[in-house]
Design goal:
Strand content: 5-15%
CATH topology of the largest domain: Rossmann fold
CATH architecture of the largest domain: 3-Layer(aba) Sandwich
Number of domains: 2
Distance between the termini: 24 Å
Helix content: 40-55%
Oligomer: single chain
Length: 293
């Protein structure tokens, strides 16, 4: 069973945990009190944990148990799909115990360690040379795992050519960064993804005819300064460096950048060009990430 519960050899501790999880499941409407008693009796007779017993009796799914455990430890798990859920790509949000999420947590730690002054850490650009290399996927999951640490995180979709964050988080994209930069909307357009998770998203908005000019305006600096005073960490998704100078313009205004390469897809020459363009723009590149997702 995939869960966040650690094994405990103490029968009393297992029973206490079963009671707590059972109460949460009743509160969530997934079980009745009679169901809880039945599972607890079966668990006691078979020497099983509450969750394992519920699975054996086919009264709960692993997802039900994971959600209950997450609530017990105040660890928010978002819905997957549907009207209010995130897309399959945002795996850190709906399946945080997946083995696929652990490398993203390692990256989170590496970013924190490599930042010259952690107290001044604010904005990080995710860049890559070409499309289809996973920038939006990485930005969404990286922002999520930082928010799961309790930090107040803002994810900005600065790709006003091929935006994806509104699709990943199931958001309306009629207003966003483009609206903010043209003065047609204010900071209230930032969306909090879940009341129990301090993750906020600013989608790209309606695609403008002049994204590079908008990003190059002084107002973009003012927007970043404003958000830097309101959030602990800002992750910025950008367009491919090979298609425009947008990423360079954005990264030059941010505090640092990571460059993403995709295994068996990104060409070495394209990567070298992307690194050169970023460094020549004065961007502080703190590392590169290999994506085999």
């Amino acid at each position: 069973m995939t869960s966040v519960v650690l094994e405990d050899s103490s029968p009393d501790m297992s029973r206490d945990r079963g009671r707590a999880i059972g109460a949460i499941l009743v509160q969530q409407g997934r079980l009745s009190p009679a169901d809880v008693d039945k599972i607890r009796l079966f668990a006691s007779n078979e020497g099983l944990r509450f969750g394992d017993a519920a699975l054996r009796l086919q009264m709960l799914s692993e997802r039900d148990i994971d959600l209950a455990i997450a609530q017990q430890f105040k660890y928010t798990i978002l819905e997957r799909g549907g009207e209010h859920g995130v897309a399959d790509d945002v795996i850190a949000a709906y399946a945080p115990q997946s083995p696929m999420v652990e490398p993203i947590r390692v990256l989170r730690s590496q970013i924190s360690l490599r930042w010259p002054n952690p107290k001044e850490r604010k904005s990080l650009v995710v860049a890559s040379s070409g499309r289809g290399e996973g920038r939006s996927w990485l930005a969404a999951n990286l922002a999520t795992v930082f928010a799961q640490m309790g930090e107040r995180v803002l994810l900005i979709d600065a790709d006003m050519r091929h935006p994806r964050q509104h699709e990943l988080f199931n958001l309306d994209n009629s207003t966003g960064l483009s609206s903010l930069l043209t003065g047609r909307a204010g900071r209230e357009i930032v969306v909090r993804i879940n009341p129990n998770l301090r993750l906020f998203v600013l989608p790209a908005g309606i695609l403008p005819p002049n994204p590079q000019e908008l990003l190059g305006r002084q107002v973009f600096d003012l927007v970043l300064e404003l958000f830097a005073s309101q959030y602990d960490f800002i992750v910025i998704d950008t367009p491919a460096t090979s298609e425009s100078a947008d990423a360079q313009i954005v990264a030059a205004r941010a505090d640092a950048a990571v460059v993403l390469v995709r295994l068996n897809r990104t060409r070495v020459q394209d990567l070298k060009m992307a690194m050169q363009n970023l460094t020549e723009s004065g961007v502080h590149v703190i590392g590169s990430v290999v994506n085999d997702y």
